[in-house]
Write a structure and sequence with these properties.
Length: 179
C-alpha cells in the first residue's frame, strides 16, 4: 500500500509540476525499496537528489543525502556513507541551519566510529555538542554526549566515558526519554 501511495504521489507531483513533492515521493520510493532492491532504491534517491538540486532546496537535499547515508550504513558500507555524510555537512553549512549541521556531524561521527577513526569522530561529536548547546537542542546534546562516551570507552578511558554517560542520563531524565 505504501508503494502504491508513493507511486500515486509521484504521478500527481509530475502532473502538477510540484518538484519538491516529486523529490519527496521518489525519496519515499527509495526508502521502500531498501530491503528489496538496494540498486533501485539508490536510483530513486539519486533522482530525488537531482530534482532537489535543480529546485535549489537545500533542506530537501540534506534530507535525501541523510537517507542515502543511513542506507549505506545499514548495508555495511561506512566508507561510502562517510562520503555521503560529508556532502550532507557541506550542504548543511550552505543552508546555515544549525540543526542540519548538528545532524550531519552526528551522522558523520557514526561512520568515523565504525571505521575506528576515533579522533575524527570525537571532533565531529564535539562540534555537534557545541551546536546543540548553542541552539538549545537537548536531544542533540544527549546524543553527542553518548557518542563522546563511546569514543572515550573505545580508547580505554573509562572514567571519562562514565562522566559523559552520566551527563547524558541526567539530561535524559530531565527532558524525558523521547528517543
Amino acid at each position: 500500500q505504501a508503494k502504491q501511495a508513493a507511486d500515486r504521489a509521484r504521478t500527481v507531483c509530475e502532473q502538477t509540476g510540484d518538484r519538491i513533492g516529486l523529490a519527496g515521493a521518489l525519496t519515499m520510493l527509495g526508502t521502500l525499496h531498501l530491503k528489496v532492491n538496494f540498486a533501485e532504491a539508490q536510483d530513486y534517491y539519486e533522482q530525488a537528489l537531482h530534482i532537489a538540486q535543480q529546485a535549489g532546496s537545500l533542506s530537501e537535499q540534506i534530507n535525501i543525502l541523510s537517507g542515502i547515508g543511513v542506507a549505506q550504513m545499514v548495508r555495511g558500507d561506512p566508507g561510502t556513507a562517510e562520503q555521503t555524510f560529508t556532502r550532507t555537512l557541506e550542504v548543511a553549512r550552505q543552508s546555515e541551519t544549525k540543526g542540519f549541521i548538528k545532524m550531519a556531524r552526528l551522522n558523520l561521527s557514526s561512520t568515523l566510529l565504525e571505521q575506528g577513526r576515533y579522533r575524527e569522530a570525537e571532533t565531529q561529536l564535539s562540534e555537534a555538542l557545541a551546536v546543540s548547546r548553542e541552539i538549545g537542542e537537548q536531544e542533540g546534546v544527549a546524543l553527542s554526549l553518548i557518542g563522546l562516551g563511546q569514543v572515550a570507552g573505545l580508547r580505554g578511558d573509562f572514567s571519562v566515558a562514565s562522566n559523559y554517560f552520566e551527563q547524558a542520563v541526567a539530561l535524559e531524565r530531565k527532558i524525558g526519554d523521547r528517543w
